[in-house]
Design goal:
2-enoyl-CoA Hydratase, Chain A, domain 1, 20 helices, eight-stranded mixed sheet, alpha/beta, 3 domains, single chain, about 525 residues
Amino acid sequence: MRFLADLMSQVRNESEKICEGGGAKAIESQHAKGRLTARERIALLADPGTFFELGLYTAHGMYEEWGGAPAAGVITGMARVETRMVMIIANDATVKAGAFFPMTSKKVIRAQNIALENRIPTIYLVDSAGVFLPLQEDVFPDTDDFGRVFRNNAVMSAKGIPQIAAIMGMCVAGGGYLPVMCDHVLMTDGSGLFLAGPALVQAAIGQKVSADDLGGAAMHSAISGTVDFREPNDQACIARIRSIVEKWGYRRLSPWDRKKPVEPELTAEEIYGIYDSSPARPYDMKEVLARVLDGSRFDEYKPEYGKTLICGYGRIGGFAVGIVANQKLHAQQTDHEGNKRVEFGGVIYTESAEKAARFIMDCNQNLIPLIFFHDVNGFMVGRDAEWSGIIKAGAKMVNAVSNSVVPKITVIVGGSFGAGHYAMCGKAYDPRFVFAWPTARYAVMSGDAAAGTLVEIKVKQLERSGKKLSEEERKELYESVKRTYDEQTDPRYGAARLWIDKIIDPIETRDAITQALEAAALNPDVAEFKVGVLQT
């Protein structure tokens, strides 16, 4: 219990530090210009207590040679504005003047993709110096780089997703297209919108012009007609945005069933005492679910078959959901010949994969969103597993997950390794959101397994060349590999690279899933469910 609480405390402390952005001096400089910081703007824009930040850890530990880029210099998340759910994307000008690092582009695109998939209206608070030039080759050209942001603007507009952009500082070069491709454009006095700034204009064509004449709010409001609303300051601009949003009509909601939420009968704080990362002390995942589900009620599907995967129906935040969760308790299973065997918790066996594949298909057939809880070591290996058709059963589960058309939400509780990560709807399988507890571990295999494997490979290579590692050298190599793997399996490493949308406190699991389901409910379109050819 203490271990998990301490980990969460460490995450909170780091989060507070990240929220400081570029630091006190940069904040002071922003205020000196008569502008609010990005977080101050969001606090004014969002209904009190509704901002649900995503991607806080983006770029964590990266770009250190450039002084770092806390939260990648952009703040993203869902909020309520005049009770309507919106996605907010706000440049943080305290971090390198809001310049776009490679991960900045990817973070904005991730927020746009969430908005696209869930049909979430999006508000951009623009205050950016454009591309971070020393890293332009990693920002400019690819499908998940800077240009994709404007492509997404156009696609979102075509799909009828409302977009509002407020220029509240600099908006230069290619970045100038973002606000102009939105439905509404607001601009504050003292801000600038131009494809090339005064210095570049003079260098390119020899013309001397002031920033205000070239691309100030007055010019764009009265002469170019680019701006819909010219506002004197940040406060007035945000008040105008809220006024616009308040008048929006309501669209058709999705078919996911929702009733009045009921709190779990068991308290979420008890999760701290239930979860245990030690293989020597397996925990019961059903005890975790009982502290997340409405009324702690769970209709378990095939409870006596394939016991290392728990499947069943319940409600979270009032929404009907299908649960697929790894069970960490060891279980006894009887095979087709009547032989009994012990199945290890956290491992996917043939029976559990087949059960999960069928359950996932049932949820799609009945329009029930899916929630995946990961604590998986991978699929079972060995002769008995291969003879039982483990590859065939695993392929069936992966097929069902891949072709699923209902919303999928992933929560990584503990380990999420190898093909088990894929089958449990890892990032590559299009979950609408990926949440992780601070205890999450995310890799091809665990640090111990990877270190053991790589040491054996190295030893065999050396033996072939007539050399031999001493026991001390073997230990040193093992520890070196394990250290690297342990660092890379840490959820903060994954969150820095946007493999994880949000690191959550275990006791906030229910709230995070409810937020995600409310977002998913904005999209009424459900494709036809087809799985193609299944191995039988």
